[in-house]
Amino acid sequence: MMLNSIYYYLVERVMNMGQRVPVTIISGYLGAGKTTLILHLLKCKEGKRVGIIVNDLAAVNVDEKMIQRSPDFSKADQLVALTHGSIGGQLQQQLIDQTYRLAASGTVDLILVESSGIVQPDMAAKAIARGTTTDGEKLATVCRLDTNVTVVDGFRVLHQFLPGDGAYNQDFTQSNQLIINQIEFCDVLLFNKTDLLTAEQQTYLEKFVRQLQPRAVFLETKFAIVPVSKVINTHLFDEKHELEAYDRSDDLSHFKEHHDLKFGIDSFVYRRRRPFNPMRFDAWLDQWPPAITRCKGVMWVITQPERVFTISQSGRAMDIIPSGYWIASMKDWEIKKIFTVRQNLRQIWDPRFGDRMIELVFIGQNMNRNKIIHDLDQCLMREDEVIDVRQDPFRLRHSNAHSK
Ligand SMILES: Nc1nc2c(ncn2[C@@H]2O[C@H](COP(=O)(O)OP(=O)(O)OP(=O)(O)O)[C@@H](O)[C@H]2O)c(=O)[nH]1
Known about the structure:
- By secondary structure, this protein is of the alpha/beta class.
- The protein has helices spanning about 1-15, 35-45, 60-70, 90-105, 120-130, 155-160, 175-185, 200-210, 240-250, 250-260, 280-285, 330-340, 345-350, 370-380, 395; strands at about 20-25, 50-55, 80, 110-115, 145-155, 190, 215-220, 265-270, 290-300, 305-315, 315-325, 360-365.
- The chain contains 15 helices and twelve strands.
- A seven-stranded parallel beta sheet has the order 3-2-4-1-5-6-7, sandwiched between helices.
- The longest helix has 16 residues, at about 90-105.
- Residues about 165-170, about 250-260 and about 400-404 have low confidence and may be disordered.
- The structure holds guanosine-5'-triphosphate (GTP).
- Guanosine-5'-triphosphate binds near residues 117 and 195.
């Protein structure tokens, strides 16, 4: 049985030799569910070796950490994190070089590219379909752009696009335009977060999205769960139809301007080596500044010193979930063992608190950064504070996602 599987594995490898590696690009606005889709695809990869390229807007690549922590990310998979946010200029070249390196190495069977939520959707497609590496190699000789997937956050579309609920709100103008561009440029459209919509809203929104994008394969999803064959190796990308049509509809200077302005969107990282007082932090969540579009990262609360809490907010949806344990809460011999395999642990290890920290990335439009930082600092534990653990709101709710 074992020999049989090895035989078929080798036959498949030999047959695949010389074939170009298929690339799926995953686009979608901030918090739409792109990383959720990648994690789902890793779960269903059936022995395929996956190369993943992520690029996050903020200085701390939360998506990279999420994927690395996934039990489905195996040794045979490879993860490359691009730096500096949107795909444009230098970063576009970095994407081309890294994709070439992965595809030419012969060590991956497919490549997934997660583009940052605020980049024009054709940027990554142009890089993959037409790119030339710094050394002058044509990317198209080793890989082929297979599918452009756009993940749409149905809940956000509901609140931003429905008449009378934000459609005429100036604050939404730029992000609306970007979401529409992302919808218009794709082969497969995942209409995600349908669990947050009623059947009636879903029907209305499907018609709305269909008018913008009649050509793509349309799939309604919850937590981006789709059959793998719908987004990988579909052969749906048609360069002539998609890129050339897009080239005609807008000139490049327009895209550049959008990239440089980044839609007025800014980001910063809040990092502290002190835990939150969970009651004060919970009260702050009730006054969430609307300028924050997206927040993600990890949190340390004093009442549960062993637990890592993951925070993920996008628009009006907020999840705070216990997602594992701080390494510092493990036994000494376990910590020593982890140190031998995770070289970069030393860089984040604090002599007193180990890996415990609060590290939150905030992305938003016209955020009052100083006030947010000041208010969050007020939520930190004070030196002489005493706390009743029974009042911890995260302990009470932690078996479920914490929704605000
Ligand atoms: N209720 C609900 N939540 C979802 C669904 N899909 C994803 N989420 C949640 O939405 C949040 C954002 O998901 P991500 O996959 O991180 O979104 P993303 O597009 O990668 O975000 P960025 O990389 O910041 O642009 C997470 O808390 C997910 O668990 C869904 O179908 N329904």
